[in-house]
Every structure is written in C-alpha cells, then in structure tokens.
Design a protein that fits this description.
Length: 170
C-alpha cells in the first residue's frame, strides 16, 4: 500500500493565480518530482533548479530525499526553476490517502491558467508581456512571435497536462 500525497504547486508572484493540484506517490524523490513540475507547467527542462525547505534551507541530494521526508501538513517547501527567471512554486500538502495502484500517479486533478513560457523573463517579464498582448500593440511583434498569435493565458487543459505527466509514470 502506497501513501499518495495530493499537493498544490502555486506559481509565486503572479497577479492572477496559476497553480496545479497533483497526486503523487509520497515516496517519489525530489529529482523525479522536478520532472513532474516540468510536465505540470509545460516547461522544457532547459535550466537548473533547486528546492528550499520550510526553514529556507536549500535541500541537497534531491535523488536521496523523498517527498514524504520534506512535506507535511505543517511544512511546505519551494521549488525554484531557472536561476535567471526564478520561477518559484510554493508546494503545499492538501491531502493524503492510501492506494494499491501507483501506476496511475502522478496525475493532475486541478489547475488554473496557462503557465508562463520558458524564458519569459520571470514574473515581471511575463506580466509585462501579458499587458502588451492585452493592449494588442502590434509594434511588439517579438512578443506575439514568442508567445504565438493565439496565446491565451486563461487556457488550462487537464488532459494536456496529464498527457505530459504520462511520461513521469513508472
């Protein structure tokens, strides 16, 4: 019997909330959890990352630390991806339960809004880009080229996320 953690990963600093709720086996190590976060937020794993525990200390040896060792109802942690953009996910534990079938995990059960694209300039660059897109200023063709003409920051597809997560399953 495996213990399953239902966790919420919320992107810090954005004006409009962006988050994913995912169920994962609590025995997953933090290195593999990094791969889950990449799939959840449609990032491409081009950059380095690190974790901080609830006391703000960097977590070392991620391949030797399990989610259960670092996360509880009383203790959260953060995941930071891309040292220059510093995308920061606040990770909190919502629920735990037992399940015999771990082959279906990780699985996303909820989420809100599209994640920022890779190398968008961090929260500030992303928010500025969204403002320009909303104002439809054609002189910013580089932004529409980077984000695409049909970029919709409100879009979220649980099916797309779970398809990406299928590569993270055993």
């Amino acid at each position: 019997m495996a213990t399953i953690f239902e966790i919420k990963a919320s992107l810090a600093g954005v004006k409009k909330e962006i988050y994913r709720t995912v169920r994962v086996d609590s025995s997953i190590d933090l290195q593999r959890l990094h791969e889950v976060f990449q799939a959840l937020f449609a990032w491409e794993n081009f950059h380095q990352h690190f974790y901080h525990d609830a006391q703000g200390q960097e977590i070392k040896k991620e391949d030797q630390v399990t989610l259960a060792q670092g996360l509880s109802m009383d203790n959260h942690f953060t995941y930071v991806y891309d040292y220059s953009d510093a995308w920061t996910l606040n990770i909190s534990l919502l629920n735990t339960f037992d399940d015999n079938d771990t082959s279906k995990y990780p699985i996303c059960v909820a989420g809100v809004r599209k994640a920022p694209p890779e190398d968008a300039g961090g929260v500030t660059g992303y928010e500025m880009s969204l403002e320009m897109i909303e104002e439809k200023k054609k002189k910013f063709s580089l932004i529409t080229e980077w984000y695409g003409d049909e970029y919709d920051p409100e879009h979220f597809s649980i099916d797309e996320v779970n398809k990406a997560l299928s590569n993270c399953r055993n």
